[in-house]
Amino acid sequence: MPVTLRSLSRRALLVGAAVAFSMPAFAEDTIKFGLVAAMSGQSAKSGEAIMRGLSLAMDEINAKGGVLGKKLELVVRDDESNPARGVVAARELVQREKVAALFGGLDTPVSMAIVPFANQSRVPFMGVWAAGTAITRNGASDNYVFRVSAVDALVDRALVDYAIKKNAIKKPGMILINNSWGESNEGGLKAALTDKGLPFAGIEKFQDADVDVVPQLTRLKDEGADALFLVANVAPSSQVVKSLDRMGWNVPIISHWGPAGGRFTELAGPSAANVHFIQTFSFAGKMSPKAEAVFEALKKKYPEVKTLADVTPAVGIANAYDAMHLTAMAVEKAGSTDGTKIRDGFYAIDRYDGLIKAYDKPFSEQNHDALSSGDYIFTHFIEGEIVPLTN
Amino acid sequence: MLLFSAIVSGIAVGSMYGLIALGYHVTYVVSSTVNFAQGSCVMLGAVLGYVLGIRLGLPMPLAIVLSILLCGLFGLVVERLLVRPFAERGSSAWLMATVAGGIVVDNVVLFTFGKEPRGFPSFLAAKPIEIFGMGVFPLQIVIPLVGLGLAVILQFAFQRTAKGKAMLAVVQNKRAAQLMGINVRRAVALSFALSTALAGLAGILIAPLFSVQSDMGTLFGIKAFAAAILGGIGSAWGVMLAGILYGLIEALVTSFAGSSYTQIVAFAVVIAALAIRPNGLLGRAGTRKV
Q1: Are residues A170 and A235 in the same domain?
Q2: Are A131 and A181 found together in one domain?
């Protein structure tokens, strides 16, 4: 039989397939974790931060011999902030790459879409950013979803507590982005205010593309708002600040963590510093020895990290770093990569001296969130850097 | 106070819509086609202004002139590739082609410029000045002045100059215009260049009040088209005034009814206005002569 081009390419294909199939045997020497996050588009910076946090923790674990005698390996997929793509990626990671656990990204809608799949396929899903309350509190009888990040319902309480303590608010107003994130916080803020017996001046919504938010803000001002709760991403948040500047209305602004997602000072001008927003972690200020070590390691691993201004968004790095260590501990406790055993492994973690805090029994069957409102800090932007506020 | 603040906000935002809508008007009166990538041209103007003036550090006046020229050049490309091949065959596919062109441009900018919104500082939008106790950025006064000025110039140029009349003749009867020695293709191409240059200028003017990002033009483009239709797309004055009117409606509804109702009421008003005056506020009934 003459060797034709077609038979040649068929042979090449067979060889290729053989190589590909031999890969898993090779890969059994590692334990794979998957990451589904926005690696492109508007939130690409968040994906980069998460990857850095996870990689750094993984390097540390691998340097000490890995987990269960195996090295850890991270497989990354881009969800493009699109829930449908996120689910496809999660499925592929679990079914083809056989990852032992999944890590999630910034977008609440994407994480919400992955939650049912993770619970059905019994693969632990660790959230490191998205704050939607229902991600971990998803009502499933068999819940495989954990989180090392803020939780909307708790954030809203923390915002209200902070405003009462710091600004002695009597009648705050809300200015919220007109999407599901704004809506989830509208509920949370209302509940938190009701608990404190406080009325609110009004609830105003605005769009991503609104150039001028003065009409909404004037309504809140006329209703007697003495402080504003702000929930929006960085660009629309800066439109609120610019509109307030024009009105000459100097009102306390207490915000969710949207402004941390970009160049807030550049977009909003010097008044950006008036916006006090919530974070789970900041490298700025007096660093703990752990934070100093992590910051040095970041500079070494990523040469483009030179100053503190280059480690924003720090929450993504820190949440991911602690989440990776906790997940590795859960696998160690489980003694295997079986999903259900890893889940029980999370419950068995006693203590972990992390970057954000010292975790003491961080997870239980009732509580899948490692961070609580006591771990939140308030910060603001000074010249492009996120600086903690002292209470 | 609420009323006055709504009026100031409405006029400033509305004249931006008007300025962009003038671009729809220009190509429509010459060729009965419009460029639905107009929103992307707004974005292109802002992005080019940012890249040339801030990233590359050219003197701002030079950067602005260059950006507007490049936007004009882009208009020529749009006309040649996305409009002419279809319009000359009597097809309406230019409609979809220009929409698609806009999406392509948005995404090319997304990959090259990046999706992170950037700030476009300007001394005209740094310190508000006070007018009747209301804070206003100087740029918010410049935009209506530029818009109204351009509307006057366009109206005059089309009605009173030989070149303008020649361009208008094209839409009436292409064959006759050609026989009279008018270069039809050049007139149409010129109208597209003018239209995208106007959009680019609008983008540069809006940028300091907003932020520069690849998808910033989409909604502006849609609202401006609503303004163009509302005003009667054939009249420069009508288009500009309708833009301001649309901005005013938005601001007034937000101020007095609340932001939840803004889009519903604003677009409902456009529909109602068109039901009453199908050719727009200042438009003339179109007669087709056989």
Answers
A1: yes
A2: no
Tens digits of per-residue pLDDT, A254-265? 999 989 877 889
Residues A273 and A292 in one domain: no
Query: Is residue A380, in this structure, part of any structural domain at all?
Result: no
pLDDT in tens, A15-37: 444 444 444 444 468 999 999 99
Of B5, B126, B211, the CB nearest to A267: B211
User: What is the number of domains present in chain A?
Assistant: 2
pLDDT at A391 over 80: no
Residues 306-365 in A contacting B (C-alpha not used; CB under 8 Å): none
Other C-beta atoms closer than 10 Å to the C-beta of A149 total 29
pLDDT tens readout for residues B148-190: 999 999 988 888 888 888 888 887 777 888 888 888 888 899 9
Do A50 and A133 belong together in one domain? yes
Å between B252 CA and nearest CA of chain A: 8
Instruction: Write down the pTM of the prediction.
Output: 0.81
> Mean of the pLDDT values across residues A347-372?
96
* Chain B interface includes A178 (CB < 8 A): yes
Give me the pLDDT at residue A202, please.
94
Q: Are residues A144 and A292 in the same domain?
A: yes
Which pair of tokens denotes residue B83? Answer: 């409009």
Contacts 24+ apart (CB under 8 A), A336-340: A336/A68, A337/A31, A337/A68, A337/A100, A339/A100, A339/A101, A339/A121, A339/A122, A339/A123, A339/A124, A339/A144, A340/A122
Q: What are the pLDDT digits (tens) for A221-275?
A: 999 999 999 999 888 999 999 999 999 999 999 999 989 877 889 899 889 999 9
CATH class of B2-276: mainly alpha
> Residues A123, A46: one domain?
yes
Residues 7-46 of A with CB under 8 A from B: 41-42, 44-45
User: In this predicted complex, what is the ipTM?
Assistant: 0.85
Same domain, A166 and A107: no
Cα B112 versus chain centre, distance: 24
- Among A257, A279, A301, the domain boundary falls at A279
Identify all chain A residues contacting B6, using CB atoms and an 8 Å cutoff. Answer: 215, 218
State the smallest CA–CA distance between residue A175 and chain B in angstroms: 10
Q: Within a domain: residue A19?
A: no
Does A3 fall in a domain? Answer: no
Q: Which positions of chain B have pLDDT values less than 70?
A: 1, 115, 284-290
Q: Does residue A24 form part of some domain?
A: no
Say whether both A141 and A177 belong to one domain: no
Q: What is the extent of the structural domain holding A360?
A: 29-150+287-373
